[in-house]
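It would be a great kindness if you could assist me with a short task in structural biology. Thank you for your consideration; the sequence and its tokens are set out here.
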Amino acid sequence: MQFYSTRDTKRLVSFREAVFRGLAPDGGLFHPASDLDLRSEFLSMTPETTFTEVARTITSALFADELSAQQIDRVITRAFPFRPELSRLTDEIYLLELYHGPSCAFKDYGASYLASVMEEFLAGEDGRAVILTATSGDTGSAVAHAFYGRSNIDVVVLYPSGRVSPLQEKQLTTLGDNIHALEVKGSFDDCQRMVKQAFLDPELSETLRLTSANSINLGRLIPQAFYYVYAFSRLKADVPGELFFCVPSGNFGNLTAGVLAWKWGLPVTGFIAATNANDVVPEYLETGTYSPRSSIRTLSNAMDVGDPSNFERLKTIFSDDVDAMAAMIWGEVVSDEETLETIAHFRVTENVFVDPHTAAGVRAAQRFIANRYPTVGTVITLGTAHPAKFGEVVEEATGMRPDIPERLERVLDLEKKAMPMDNTPGALKEFLLDTFRD
């Protein structure tokens, strides 16, 4: 499998180059140059198929020309000592729990896989790679924990000051060592813009081995497709009628990964893109006009993205045809009030806590079933984070806080290690050169 930039389909690169570049030189995103046909493999999977078997099947199909079978086994074994869990919320809605990894968020899957792949590629090499990533919350903590202590790799995480939850901030600022946290005076969009401009800076590109662990990096995006296939394999014998996935969406990497799985042959009818007030993609699906804008602060802060990076990949997949995209993806916008109502409802009716992002997804799934597909078979909603990561919002909705897993609780008393930074590309460039230039 080779890959091209979403802005230049003629120049092909290897998976290794795509991983270490992160962003294409022309500012585009790397994307598979051809489609796989894995439908028969997906249909042969059973409820007994393990998550690592799913990951190994897709990795081998994509990258067997760059990674040996032994290397793939090492990558998968190191990356996934955890797995998703499925639970049933209502007759029509399942929850795909993606928060059983080290940072209790779905981004553990992509970050851990990427770290494992990079470690395999860097084995026996000289020099260091510098991972540069922006976060609206969970990416930073997942990347920090996935790469902590890795040989020959440093991580720089930019996060918007005051716009991540206290627990998220603790997770990404307390590790130290090869993890460098930068507290940016601005929004997530500012952080993302700074990262993109750093990759396009000729001096930085020539001086440092920069790459990204955001979902703009293909090595983090692709493993997110694994759990869509895994969920299908667990439920395919029990799903009557049509199957949909509902995806809480901010930067749209998670949904893009599901669409890739569909392109490779996953038998799914469609996807529901659940957003908060940052609704540029649902608006595009309704009107055909894409109007990026400054992000709006909401209770589901990891979805506060006004110009989602992976929209460019979605446009590539659907050949820039809004009608084709809208035939496969439905947009649902969920307000803060509806998010709080949903959290409270499932605590009372099902004795289940959900975080605000998952709550937005569940509310979107309920509305989709009621208004668009009243005879739908099943909607699998992605549970993106452990509710304890957003204890303040859950308490606001329910009057109580969920229990904190031990792996989260132990960071609360650790010292914050973060450097304040202005929201300018020049400030980031100065930090990178001063810190990492030989």
